[in-house]
Each structure stands twice: as structure tokens, then as C-alpha cells.
Amino acid sequence: MLSSNYSNRLFGRTRGRSKKKINLKKYYETVDKYKFQHFNEETEYILDIGTGYGETSIFLAKQFPDKVIISCEKYIDGNIILLKNIENNKIKNILLHNGNVYEVLERANKKYFKLVWIFFPDPWPKNRHAKRRLITSDFLIKLHKILKENSEILIATDSKIYLRFILNSIYNCKEFFLWLNQSKMNLHIKDYYDIETKYYKKAINSQRKPSLFILRKI
Fold first, then answer.
1. Which domains does the chain have, with CATH numbers?
2. Model pTM?
3. Is 122 an active-site residue?
4. What is the pLDDT of residues 28-63, one digit of tens each?
5. Annotated catalytic residue, options 32, 66, 122, 194
């Protein structure tokens, strides 16, 4: 059972602003086909948190065909697009969790993950909402416990407020992670990975340069 801790609560929208009607019954039937249910001890996993429209999950599934991608996203409109792309591309190594990532983490009683991606998490820029931010030192330590040796966490943000918050969280976890690109964090994301998500394009169009953090488990 989930803790009542504030940081374990789930925030944000489940639907977009569009008034387009969707068939929820059909949606959940499709989700059930790809739903993450339990870990297989012989499988290596990649955790993709807050996948938005699923571009990162599709990218990771193609880059790492020998790994299983767990795509964590409660945003229904985005998941519909992800599910269509999974079926259109006949992808077999993506499982979907349409809920709180803590529900996945609490099922991990061993070190299952080789890689964690967290691209453009909601920055919750208002001070009164700061506690809703996902990336905290406590959260990074929780990930550390379920990461395999030498595994990495990638975090991307285009928010200056969140960037400072993330920097502080990394500093508080310096005995748990090596910050691999500390001297190159302001390089373009595409200097590392050839991927453009909707939120990445939105940042570039708004003349905001996203920062990428690459952390390796010590």
C-alpha cells in the first residue's frame, strides 16, 4: 500500500485541454494488453517516467531491443498516442503503467533497472507547489536502491527554477551518484541523443535551451 507521504501523491492532468471525446472503455482494454504487472527476475528494465506523448519510450524501445521499457504516464491523451505507435511499429518491449511511478518502485524488491529517463517533468514553478516536484534527493535515493551497478539516470528540464532545484537534489546525493556531464550539462540534448519530443520542441520554440543531467550510480 502506498505511503501517505506528500511526495508519493500524484499531481497533474489526466486529460488534455481538447474536448475530443475518447472511448475510455476501449482505452483501458488496450492499456491492459500492455500493462506492467510484475517484474521478471531474468529481465533488465528501463524506467521511463512521465513519458508525455510516448516519444521517449518508443525511442528507448528501438535503442535497447533487449530491454523492457516501463513507461510511466497517467496522461490519457499521451498514452493513446503511445499505444497507437506501439501497435503501428509492432513494438514488443514496452509495458505501460498509467499511474504513479511510486507504485512501480514499491514492487521492485531487487535491482531491476539499467537506466532511468525523466524528460521534462512538470516543474511546478509556483512556490506553493514546490513539494509536488518529482526530482528530490529522497526520490533519487529511492531510485538508487533499485538501480543495477553502474546504471544511469537521465533528467532533462528547460525550467530555470527546476534546474536549481535539481542541482540542489544532486548535491545532497553526491555520495550516491557521479554526475557524469557536470562540465557539459549545457550541451544540447541532441548532442547526446537524437530525439525530439513535443516538450523539447516547445522549449526550443520558446528559445529555452534544455539542460540534461546524466547521473551514474556509485
1. 6-217 (3.40.50.150)
2. 0.87
3. yes
4. 898 999 999 999 999 999 999 999 999 999 999 999
5. 122
